[in-house]
């Protein structure tokens, strides 16, 4: 189990840049300060998702112009059902590929991530090491009224299995939100606000 206090989410908000339509620039940093091991850890199907959202003063979601997105293993489908692939954010996991048919090369028709109980190789490892940090940058399109503000929300979700596996096997595993932070950005370029969870 990953405890909430083992993580720190630091969000730095930059004021909108350039002429209309404005760009809201956001930097999101995650640091692994207390775990003493990579996060997520345990069997490779454990994974973690960072979601970054931006809203205008009327609560409308802002369009993303730049920045990384959650990988396909974050779930394909409706976001309200926990499928976050393609949304602004990142995924953290040790992703395995099946090599059973043509070792050591990954099987051409494999689906990733592959289960760790098969013959596999490590395709990628984006986990955050002990005392390590991860930083990502995002830009959102916004055209604010004179007194309008932008709300930026970042949250980290821990999953004990990949979404597609949980759905297929009907495992009763709930997402665990281990950190969240919201900050407001003023159009007038007031002092940046920084949030730490």
Q: Give the strand order, joined by hyphens, for the main sheet.
A: 4-8-2-1-11
Could you tell me the mean pLDDT?
Answer: 80
Which outline best applies?
Answer: elongated
Order of helices and strands: EEEEEEEEEHEE
| Content-based structural category | mainly beta
Total strand segments: 11
Describe the structure concisely.
The chain is 4% helix and 43% strand.
What does this structure look like?
There is one protein chain. By secondary structure, the chain is mostly beta strands. Helix content is 4%, strand content 43%. The protein has one helix and eleven strands, in the order E-E-E-E-E-E-E-E-E-H-E-E. The protein has one helix spanning 163-169; strands spanning 7-17, 22-32, 47-55, 63-66, 89-92, 94-98, 120-125, 133-142, 149-159, 176-186, 194-196. A five-stranded antiparallel beta sheet has the order 4-8-2-1-11, with no helix packed on it. Strands 5-3-9-10 form a four-stranded antiparallel beta sheet, with no helix packed on it. The chain has a two-stranded antiparallel sheet with strand order 6-7. A hairpin with a 4-residue loop joins strand 1 (7-17) and strand 2. The longest helix is centred in the last third of the chain and has 7 residues, at 163-169. Mean pLDDT is 80; it is low at 1-13, 16-20 and 189-197.
Q: What's the SSE blueprint?
A:
Elements: E1 7-17, E2 22-32, E3 47-55, E4 63-66, E5 89-92, E6 94-98, E7 120-125, E8 133-142, E9 149-159, H1 163-169, E10 176-186, E11 194-196
Antiparallel strand pairs: 1-2, 1-11, 2-8, 3-5, 3-9, 4-8, 6-7, 9-10
